[in-house]
């Protein structure tokens, strides 16, 4: 595997690889999201309790799941960057941070839109909502820390350190907040049991979760390529590329 | 020099330097008292309400006062070159940093925790409850000093860093706040407080173990 990975330590190769991720996965993910949303919004059966308003689940759940997932992958990338001093990993951390922040914000907004008709309020101080909000602050912290340095390289390394510390802290925050207050419905898919959501409703949700993951990878590929070009703008291969 | 001797020497030096600039330590305490005064003025002087809010006010005031003090943890030694010399000396960075965390805690946090006794007359808090609050504040301020040392080391060279400090420290501090509140609730209802208190202590010890490593890494990064 390392023999296969090795050439991608070179910026040119990494640039090509990330752009090809973007090229292939972007259309695929858009088709997936389109199909999932169409199926979920038009053809999935209406919920007997929540009526049609449950359909926001097809946006809310994928973005909430991947908001946590992106933080994990960001932390792992930051860890690799610090331990093996891989510069491209630092750039990937910076590429992921704003995307994760947007996903988190999206999960919070759709969640509060869903909460208004169901719970009768836009916001409650419930465990999952709170830990999602804290997650948003962690993302903003990584981003703000990067921008408070004049030297990009130092800023990127500092952001990596913070991402790793955040990764250690995310489970602690999650469980302590859960212990503090819980109102949100329990997990319906990820528990180790038969999913407590009906098949016809579940399928479009799974399609959406998967295509949002692809969407995230494609976006990261694009942002990574752009950040790489900016960081290497004085190098020969970039100059050749732009000509 | 042995590591233990070096550690003692570092602590000694920090206290000696602190003794020459006494006026610096008053500022966070005055800030702490000002925050305490703001609460009764903004929500009204009703004793029952103030009594209920007292532990929360103590915690908020401590967090705010420490956010004022934290940026000073490394800045001075970074600017006059002492830190660079220390890191060149060959002693482990985490040892240097943990000495600094402990001296910072003793110089800034301990006075704040003692000042929180003002909650007893101001907010008509019972002495027994204050004693529990002081224990949670002792643990919590240690934890915050650890987290703050990482943030302070990351931002040591940055000119625009002061606003970022709160964003880095406060989200990571939330578990401690939750368990401190749980302890205070239990104490208020005369229930045993050992459960949440022990978790708070465990978090503190965990932070004290891990934070110096991250801080040393961050300082090395800024020293270039």
TrEMBL record, chain A:
It is found in: Cell inner membrane; Membrane. The chain crosses the membrane at residues 21-44, 64-84, 91-115, 127-146, 158-177, 201-225. Keywords: Cell inner membrane, Cell membrane, Cytochrome c-type biogenesis, Membrane, Transmembrane, Transmembrane helix, Transport. This is Heme exporter protein C. The gene is ccmC. GO terms for molecular function: heme binding; heme transmembrane transporter activity. It comes from Catenovulum maritimum. The keyword Cell membrane applies. It comes from the Bacteria. Required for the export of heme to the periplasm for the biogenesis of c-type cytochromes. Belongs to the CcmC/CycZ/HelC family. InterPro entries: Cyt_c_assembly, Cyt_c_biogenesis_CcmC, Cyt_c_biogenesis_CcsA/CcmC. Residues 14-184 form the Cytochrome c assembly protein domain. It is a multi-pass membrane protein. The keyword Amino-acid biosynthesis does not apply. One of its GO terms (cellular component) is plasma membrane. GO terms for biological process: cytochrome complex assembly.
From TrEMBL, chain B:
It is found in: Cell inner membrane. GO terms for biological process: cytochrome c biosynthetic process; cytochrome complex assembly. The keyword Iron does not apply. Keywords: Cell inner membrane, Cell membrane, Cytochrome c-type biogenesis, Membrane, Transmembrane, Transmembrane helix, Transport. GO terms for cellular component: plasma membrane. Signal peptide: none annotated. Its main location: membrane. Required for the export of heme to the periplasm for the biogenesis of c-type cytochromes. PANTHER family: CYTOCHROME C BIOGENESIS B-RELATED (PTHR30070:SF1), HEME EXPORTER PROTEIN B (PTHR30070). Belongs to the CcmB/CycW/HelB family. This is Heme exporter protein B.
